[in-house]
Amino acid sequence: MRDRICAPPPVAPCPTEARDHRTHGGGHHGSHSARRTVRGIRPAGHRPCRRQERLTGGNDRTPDSCGCAGAPGFATTADAYGELLDSHGLRTRIEEQIERLHDGAASDEAGAGIRSMIMAEPLPAGLRTEIVSAYEQLVRDQGREDPEVAVRSSATAEDLPRASFAGRQETYLNVRGSAQLLLSCHRCYASLFTDRAIDHRERMGFDQLAVALSVGVQIMVRSDLAGAGVIFTLDPESGFPEVIVVSAAWGLGETVVSGQVDPDEYTVFKPSLEAAASSSP
Fold first, then answer.
1. Measuring CA to CA, how many Å separate 21 from each of 130, 156, 245, 275?
2. Is the pTM for the entire model greater than 0.85?
3. How many angstroms separate the CA atoms of 150 and 199, rounded?
4. How many domains does one find in the chain?
């Protein structure tokens, strides 16, 4: 039996991790959580393993990789995405579009065709049932009717050391109710084949069907109470590993990620943090 829903949430990686990670704060980006287990894959609080990253991608990992916690939620798995592709002959039809791309068709034409095919087919019944069940449990946990959630894509090749795919899939904010949640999840699946994502995979030599997608669902945070943004755990331009580079603004991280605002920028020298931590009582 395939695991369709699991517990791992998006987390901010530890600043001491060796490879370049990008994390986002506020709303959907960086609203970290201890998610509950729906199908018993891995309880929140366990460190992520390779199998789990294959299940939920780079964004949707467990919080204990750095001890972060925040807005509760759940995630669909890569298995659920595979189930969608295996239904209605989608995988074969997508392969045909990719062949057209390799034969000289424009990437925007192939991408539009693939996204249209995915959206034209219903989500598998079992997946729809489990997404709605997980959302209803989230509603009970929150104690309010139809709480607003962020619905975000997490590709299994999201943050590779030499080929980051972050930001090339869609995210939907302030989603309310089961019907809108299912539609947003469906759109996230289709967004694995945005023109940018297809072009990037082609340039990086990735098999278009080897990358899967998890969908993370989290309670929206109060964007009026704090700032949010993007953290790089090394210098994204030079690769210098001894700094943390932060871009932040008031409100949701989406405004920073999408370029809607000019964020404040901070560069933190990691040894200074370590020295301060070691000298504190």
1. 30, 14, 11, 23
2. no
3. 26
4. 1
Q: Report the chain's terminal Cα–Cα distance, integer Å.
A: 51
Residue-wise pLDDT tens digits, 10-36: 433 333 333 333 333 333 343 333 333
pLDDT at 281 (0 to 100) = 67
**Torsion from C-alpha of 172, 177, 180, 184, nearest 10 degrees:** 40
User: What is the percent of the chain where pLDDT is above 70?
Assistant: 70
DSSP string of the chain?
----EE-PPP-PPPTT-SS--EEE-STTTT----PPPSSSS--TTSPP-HHHHHHHTTTS--GGGTT---S-EEEE-HHHHHHHHHSTTHHHHHHHHHHHHHTT--HHHHHHHHHHHHHHSPPPHHHHHHHHHHHHHHHHHHTSSS--EEEEEEETTTEETTEE-TTSS-EEEEE-SHHHHHHHHHHHHHGGG-HHHHHHHHHHT--TTT--EEEEEEEPP-TTSSEEEEEESS-TTT--TTEEEEEEEES-HHHHHTTSS--EEEEEEHHHHHHHHHH--
Q: Is the pLDDT of residue 157 over 80?
A: no
What average pLDDT does the segment 111-125 reach? 96
> What does the chain come to in residues?
281
The range of the structural domain enclosing residue 235 comes to 5-279
Provide the CATH number for the domain around residue 12: 3.30.1490.20
